[in-house]
Amino acid sequence: MTDHTTTDGRSPGIPFPGRLLALDLGARRVGVAVCDEMRLSVRALPAIRRSSWKKLVSEVARLAEQFGAAGLVVGLPLRLDGTEGDAALETRRLARNFELTLRLPVHMQDERLTSRAAEEVLREAKLSDAERAARIDSEAAATILRDFISRAEGS
Question: Cis ω on the peptide bond leading into residue 12 (within 30° of 0)?
């Protein structure tokens, strides 16, 4: 599988221009980031507390509408060796559900080491432990989105 494909494995067919919304799906929180219409800048948004599917999809739908998102990028939690485990399979299932529910194209992006990169960015910003903990998921989503845009432009 390539680093960025749709949920069914097709090539991405990335709409341009248009904003993209990115998600880093965690067990307790979902990190969120958005880019501008020309995909030149990416910013982290406040994380979503993860509870029921209904509340999660409602909040993502609200954000997609608010920002006029042309697509959704979901971080795919591959193992360090690049293989997919149970977490990746569950993420693919959720991504497919987002695609069916939101009627937006959903793209998958390898998220290996994004939390580590996000932690470095937040440490360099000299944030307190509490501030870093609150922002880590969305900073990881921003890294996922930057990586996706970079790879899409390179293909």
Answer: no
Amino acid at 40: L
Token couple for 104: 């937006």
3-state secondary structure of 79: coil
What is the pTM for the complete model shown?
0.84
- Half-sphere CA count of 71, side-chain side, radius 13 A: 23
- CATH code of the region 4-154: 3.30.420.140
For the stretch 20-73, pLDDT in tens is 999 999 989 999 999 999 999 999 999 999 989 999 999 999 999 999 999 999
134 has a pLDDT exceeding 80? no
Dihedral angle, C-alpha 155, 31, 64, 62, nearest 10 °: 170
